[in-house]
Amino acid sequence: MKQAAHVLLVDDDVSLLKLLGMRLESRGYRVTTAESGREALDNLDQTRPDLVLSDLRMDEMDGMALFQQIQKRMPGLPVIILTAHGSIPDAVSATRQGVFSFLTKPVDRDELFSAIDDALRQTANASADGDDAWRAEIITRSPHMERVLEQARMVAGSDVSVLVTGPSGSGKELLANAIHRASSRAEKPFVAINCGALPEQLLESELFGHAKGAFTGAISQHEGLFQAADGGTLFLDEIGDMPLTLQVKLLRALQERQIRPLGSTTSIPIDVRIISATHRDLDKAMREGDFREDLFYRLNVVNLRLPPLKERAEDVPLLAKHLVTQAAERHKPFVKGFSPEALNLLASSAWPGNVRQLVNVVEQCVALTSTPIIPEALVSQALMAEENALPSFNEARAGFERSYLIKVLKITEGNVTQAARIAGRNRTDFYKLLGRHDLEPSAFKPGAEQTG
Fold this sequence. Notes:
alpha/beta; Rossmann fold; Helicase, Ruva Protein, domain 3; 4 domains; five-stranded parallel sheet; 14 strands; globular; DNA binding; P-loop_NTPase
């Protein structure tokens, strides 16, 4: 391992840099040197080191500032800090932030080589399972996404519950599946269900199963998804939309590690790992009484947040090229890709629908193109079509709800009691509706400046 290891050595003391470099090379390491943090960062992508060894006190950019930049560009790359001004508080602070080791100069030769070997060994162990097949479906070069994936890889090794948050279309199920594939449960089933897509009784039956005759139409026994996922992973998508009564039953199942099918008197032991996801603000839902706090803490042992596509714009060309290749294989093998102008337009778009919207745009472009290289005009046309597309039922309902609430608040000049009476709702339910749509009654009172 150490014969092939590549160390990036950073120090603004040129004589010390040369001396330490010779010492490392004599040990068999391949060494690249940099006389400043800026030079180290400039070399980082080209040199792709296995480890960075940096002085702490340097002009312009010190060792800790360099470490923070390295974390953004290459998460997981081990960094060892050297300093002649070592102190226990500095060391504690550095290691808490993720620095692998903090050594005081003049550094002991054996101590230095031991720290380097330990860092390289730990990095090797982290990837000892081989390749990146577990994350193969997630295409990215975004530092933000790489940090999320690094956390996902670490948490996959344990059996704790994970809550994946992020906007609709950002790839929450893909990440959940990747965690499953990186876990010890990878050979067992990965089962997914959208908790917001089914009526309450049907959702309960799908999750827990039902006995014959449990309800009208239950003509035979049905095994639920908890049983189907036994030994594997159950992914509960849009958990924030689960009805409260069903949240109670889910919490009991997770606490007792057993389920009772609808209409049955027998409990069945379960062995599943739970990964859940939502685009909703669950803190807000808890405050409004729409989501149980005890269930939240049971599900949110580890939280992974997926960024919207606009926060990982560097991934858009990469994703577009990957998606166009897939779509071309299925439909039009002569299509080779996008023109540079078309890629620029894709990269500069806002993508409110995130990766899911990008998939739709690429599919449209491949379906409509008659040339091997998709032109900018076709991308523009597909983007406009997406903007004018019919919204989903949930989006349409949310839009109607907000418009309706604004109308009744305007009619009643912000009087919640009167507005709730017109809407046929009690005040508590009406306030919940207002909170869901971020509407403030006081904004509709006479003389108030309305923003809704």
